[in-house]
Amino acid sequence: MTAAASPGRVLARLDDELRAFWAAAPQPGEMPRARACTMNLVVVAASPALAQQWLPVVDEVLLGVPARAIVVGLDPDGADALEGSATAVCTPAASGGPAVCSERVSLLARGAVCARLSSCVAALSATDVPTTLVWLGRVHADDPAFAPLARDATRVVLDASLGSLTSLAHVIYWARARPASDRPGVADLTWTRVAPWQELCARFFDEPRTRPLAWNVTRVNVTQASSGGGTLGPEGALLLGWLATSLGWRAASLGGKLRLLRAGERPVHAQLCAAPGRRLPPGALAALEIEASEGELALSGEIRREDDEAGGAAMATWRLAVTCRGQTHRLEQRIRLRDAESARLLERTLHRPTHDAALVDAVAWADELRGEELSCT
Amino acid sequence: MLSTPMSKAPPIAPNPLRRGLVEDRTSDACAVVIFGASGDLTRRKLMPALYNLACSRSLPGGFAVVGVARREKTDDSFRSEMKEAVSAFSRRKPIDATLWADFEKGLSYVRGAADAPATYEALRAQLERADAERGTRGNRLFYLAVPPAEFAPIVDGLRTARLVAVPEEERRGGPWTRVVFEKPFGHDLASARALNDSVAAAFSEAQVFRIDHYLGKETVQNLLVFRFANSLFEPVWGREHVDHVQITVAEDIGVEGRGRFYEQTGVTRDIVENHLMQLLCLTAMEPPISLAADAVRDEKVKVLHSLRPLERTLVEQNVVRGQYTRGVVHGDEVPSYREEPDVSPDSPVETYVAMRCFVDNWRWSGVPFYVRAGKRLARRVTEIAVVFNEVPHSLFRVPDGGITPNVLSVRIQPDEGIALRFISKEPGQQTILRDVAMDFRYGAAFGSNTPEAYERLLLDAMRGEATLFTRRDEVEAQWEYIDGVLRAWEAEGYPPPPLYPAGSWGPEQADDLLARDGRRWRKP
């Protein structure tokens, strides 16, 4: 980072640095470089330290999604200043062609500059490509650092685990209020993290014989990494919200206690369990158990996450037991969740459709549960 | 499993939890049965593809692979061989020991010959075990990774052993059966028809998946996206603006120990009849009404039916074949085709073919499609190049008398991508024109770790999605076109193929084919 200067000067210098990458022909022996850019990837972190943590993550994402990345750390309590540096992130070509390079700008916005951030980002953005805003931290749709950036973006990516489900809901409602032609898609890293759980959960009901049981779920147990007494975290809430909206459950109250009701007003017993002492981030999903039955057919499914291996991707065991007329068939499969690798998570999020109705529905449903009693036992 | 009386029960409702799941494609529970489990294709492509599907969570909870081949093997030795193969050929390295341990539990082996009824009895028992222990639910994908001569006995064996479910059962939520055939599908039109008849006696067309692995390549699929998702190109995609099209499938390798096979096929049957015809179809086809399998395949068949037939007299004018002699490829001396193992010393088999084709329809009338394929050429490259008309009048002085036309080239392999060549002014006081290229590289824009063609195609077959597979009438139309060429070559008095040195771009006669039209081959 350079010493503080006026934002305009900093931006002019960064612009010169970006041009300089491409102005000169490669020196003899130097690998030729080609620039690739499919989007502006603007990553705004709630603190300078978080932005630093995300630099290697963004660099890794750029290997798969060439973009002009602008990574910003916010320090709203600091003295007004903008600092920045620019670099190229290159992938050597596999077959002797030029190295493919993305540009990455790193900014630190302090004090009042935070409120003028969108002007700084606009000056550095590549033209004619869409912009994705990744916001890492709590957010409110009226935040002057957030709102103008979000208005210019094609897609806004949040992380409910870093912010909150309420933040995510606010941004979704804000986006929905915008004209359709100018409405950014809203994505969420926690939602992407939950996606493998959704897919594994759907597998319980893939067999035509057990498919009708999806409408006859009697029990759901969600286990999350937390000590007893905690409340349902964003991962569990989104998974439960997705199940509820996909299967037509509604939340009701009986004597002040939360009840989930499926079709025919029949209850779904939902329980939140705590898994203390696990090597998992607080609130991370640790297990899901589901039971369903109709007549002589009963299904019991379980997805149980193992503790992360050192340096490895999380493993989960998927189990299904189907009982019919006293006979039980069991299936078991082990799979890699790969939900804890930030770069992979962001890349997968960028590859998802811009508008995701299932996320909107799940968030709306889960947001209604705020303050309701579904706490860890 | 077979032929239960049909009821009129409605199709089963979809899984509500699958609605809106966008990220992961997975299939129904099923057993994949690989005939030819000892072969190279299984080791190099199929098993690594299945393993990679397991890594990407695309395999269902109930899954098994049954290998079938003649060699004596136990389940354990088969697993161990497959582990070695996956370690060597998977795009993901090193092998994930934890995942492999789970994956290999589903692998088993049945020893037997294609024409022995006992093979199918043993297979039935193994599949029933897989249903009970692995939850494969009676769904079977039979993959015939065997020489074409074994297709008919295997189809017959499956039918006789009643291992084929009727499609009606699937509609009612019962088990499904699908069969995948590797190319070449037939040896000529008559044999392709006979084979199709024999397949149709056991399977309905909806159960048949004829694989052309080129269609599983990302760039080939991208051709449809490129043509029909960009409004810029479609208006200039036709006779008004296109001078000609060149399609090249060039290999730098020889027959690589497959001399016996190649003596029976030659490059025309091995490459032109399938890969090259498919690339031509995708280039020339009209927009389909949807991406549904039959909508796309209908349009491809229309192109094949529009190809001007190559009768004997036309073959001489429009087709050049060749055979490689000794030469130098990438600095290494290499033997001639006739010196390869299992190749006759006076073999007339072609290792190169170049053709001038015409698609006689409204869009392409009068536009030649020059296609060529060959072995031991200067480099390995597959590309489609659309060469546009020259400008009608040149404002600029150019040293060699003309402005080179714009070329849009779609590179299928290697370095998959799309490049547009156009003319630009060199910086300076003078107006000097220079060819420049706008170059989009697939790997650069989207990362290089894209799935292999076989991963896509295997998963599509397991899911029953047939868009990227060839239909019966498509295969027969391809053969019908090629048959004219083959018949002409087989006729008495037809000259033997001219020779070309290995490491060149083919025989001189191929250059003449274009020179007669005032054009020349690209050197891609």
Describe the model.
The complex is a heterodimer of chains A (377) and B (524). With 377 residues, chain A is an alpha/beta fold. Chain A contains 9 helices and 16 strands. In chain A, the strands form 2 sheets. In chain A, strands 1, 2, 3, 4, 5, 6, 7 and 8 form an 8-stranded mixed sheet that branches. Chain A has an 8-stranded mixed sheet with strand order 10-11-12-9-13-14-15-16, with helices on one face. In chain A, a hairpin with a 2-residue loop joins strand 13 and strand 14. Chain B has 524 residues and is of the alpha/beta class. In chain B, 35% of the residues lie in helices and 20% in strands. Chain B is built from 15 helices and 18 strands. A 9-stranded mixed sheet of chain B has the order 16-15-14-13-7-12-11-8-18, sandwiched between helices. In chain B, a hairpin with a 3-residue loop joins strand 14 and strand 15. In chain B, helix 7 runs antiparallel to helix 14. The longest helix of chain B has 26 residues. In chain B, 46% of the residues are buried. At the A-B interface, helix 6, helix 7, strand 15 and strand 16 of A face helix 3 and helix 12 of B.
Quick summary:
The complex is a heterodimer of chains A (377) and B (524). By secondary structure, chain A is an alpha/beta fold.
